[in-house]
Fold each of these.
Amino acid sequence: MAKKGVAVANPPLDAAARAKTAEFRAIYDEHSPMVRRILYNICYSADIDDLVQETFLRIWRGLKNFHGSSTIRTWIYRITVNTALDSFRKSKPIGREVELMPELAGKNEEEKEAIFRDLVGKGLQKLSFDHRTALTLNLFEGASLKEIAEITGVPEGTVKSRLHFAKKEFGEFLKISGAPI
Amino acid sequence: MKIEEQEMKKLDEFLIKNRPMPPRPKPDEFNSIIQKVAKSDTIKEPSSPSYLWLAIAAGIVAIMISYPMLDNQKSNPLPTAKINGELELFISESFSEIWNEEESEYAAYFPEEN
């Protein structure tokens, strides 16, 4: 018999636990790419694997309390954004210094693409947490204003304003960096 | 279309095309999550009802043991209280001595009032 308080590597699962694990597996398979992308775009962090695991741990714990008042996608968005926020609070603030884009001459398409992606990643980090969340969810994940309002707990008008200022700030950042837009 | 709107559209296209892509997950990521889930569920066990009741019972016993001690303290005051009591007695005795002395002096000056 296993001692209490000691983690068991492969505990025998009863039917309910097996069903819950199968349901969880389905959620993971469907939503983990989205969770990973959102966390990466908001946190741009090296410990992205840890953040994904933390998010799914929270999803597991919250499953018993999820009664479908919102869609599962919105619910997972919310958990993901909250995990990102916790990570953001622990992280060191990013400097406001200008990022100059490396010289593009002599670079092939793949190299140019990598430079642009890195620039966009760095540009996102220059935005405030609220602005980058709104931009990531709307532009990269296709979430509607209503959905973002529900996830972040602010009115739709605020989301719209955050998006506007995020894009404006990003545009200025790209111009200063020398990006070809 | 306004110039600003056109610029915004170009910006959107640039950002969508060049959005940062996260590194691929490890192949055993789901298993790592399940292990973490199992570990956190095991760690949470002490807060199960049996442990909760045990904690409540221990609290009640602790109160039952400490209550008579508190009651005992009321009937047998702490040394500080005793010191305070002695100090009060000393002060009242000193004052009554001074008062008696003053009264006798007063009586010496105004004997007719006595």
Amino acid sequence: MQTSKLSAPALFGVVEAARRMKRFYYVKRSLARLIAGWEIRIPLWEIKMQLPYQLFVDTEHADQFRTRVTELRYPALDVDEDFDPALVRFMEICMDAPEWVESLAAMKLIRTEFVTNYRDYLNHTHPVGDLPSIRIVRAALAEEELLLAQLNAIVDTLLESDRQMLELQLLVLRRLMEATGGISGPSTDLTTVSIMNSLPITLVPYTRPHLPARDARFTSSVLRHEDAPTDPERLRLYRFRTLMDEMSAVEVLCGCLVDSDPTMPWAYFRDMGRWIWDESRHCEMGFEGIKSLGVDPFASDYINNYGSYAFSSPLPVVERIAVLSLLSETATVPFKIQCKEEYEETGDKRAEQMFDYDWADEAIHVTYGNRWAPVLVGNDTDLLGQTVDAVMEKWIAWGLKMAEEPEKNGTYGLFRYFHEGEWKL
Amino acid sequence: MSYEVTLKRKGISFQVDPGQRVLDAALAQGVKLVYACRNGTCKTCVVKVLEGDIVNDPEKSPALFPFERARGLRLTCIGTCEGNVVIDR
């Protein structure tokens, strides 16, 4: 017996496709914020080095879903507004995890749900009419499965007691996720939110710390910058450490992402995702470089640097970005070039390539700073000029003050470089 | 005919042909100037012009803010010369 076309199950039309794509977009952008917030508070170094990639992929997916929503006759001005209140509440609850282990539970649940929801989407949408969405979702599914596998591997490394806490949080979050109707919906109303709020779960409003969490394996917890040594072997180690230090940039940017006005253009958050990931790759290159020298990356008295974060944490976002991008990244390009050229001359291909890629990335990051710093001050470029000048003075003063106690804080050669006017234009 | 670009603090000069980008000319003559993107967006190659001028088309270098132009800053990677120039390097 043939099935009548009229009795065939209905496929997603344009309205339903847009509705689901918008929910995917919202959860992905919120997930990126969740990771950014907890990246600062997670102490375990290997996890800290891996999560920024997850964050970056989430911003990429969010970007693709958002673009697709606008292709589905959805009003462009509404794409970044009017999200389902229950879904919004769910993501807030995920952010307000009691501790970092519970934040991993949220990440794991959301990724697991995405895998299911993507498959559901592929099975139910129009195979030809909605092919542009299918192409995006297929690719997202493949990446999501990899991210979930990576996350599961991270969870496997946790202590048994931490894994138990994580599983407990998973149970509660799963119930809440069900109350929202899941990532795909249906869309809900405020009644659902009140039901969600009545469910028993421990919440601690998220606060961004003034100092980032650090791995207990580090032998030092003081702020450290150091002048470059002259001995070639120590110099190589020192330079790898400067790369590993870029975790501090990851944390500064994660703080910016968390603190930024959510009404900033979406492209700003997309760029932040890439920037954060780049800095974590630099950190990883340094980490692996140190290991390649037969040195334990944790057994050092000055690689545990978080000075950039400590200085900029209380500043407005625009000042943090000005310090990171317009001042320090611009200023360190000559250092990257010098390292690359010296290793090229000595035939150390591995080290040369590390600094070569780092240099290329810095150009992107300075471009991001140039692109977004003006927007953060309302496109008032005179005000931006004043802001950059003011924060530079603050930054130099801070660095010089730190250098007054070299035993504790390091020598801060970079700040002398700024202070002595080489940089001053 | 070419123009002379002088790095005042380093005390060295190099020649730039009309229409040639300042950075390209410097690198071709073994003069090290800092750069990164080579397309006028990152501003790593920014220099302060003390005498003469490096021509930066605002259309091609939107990254340079008006306050920076007013301070005499120019980008060498996309800048050309129409006369001799002295820069603070």
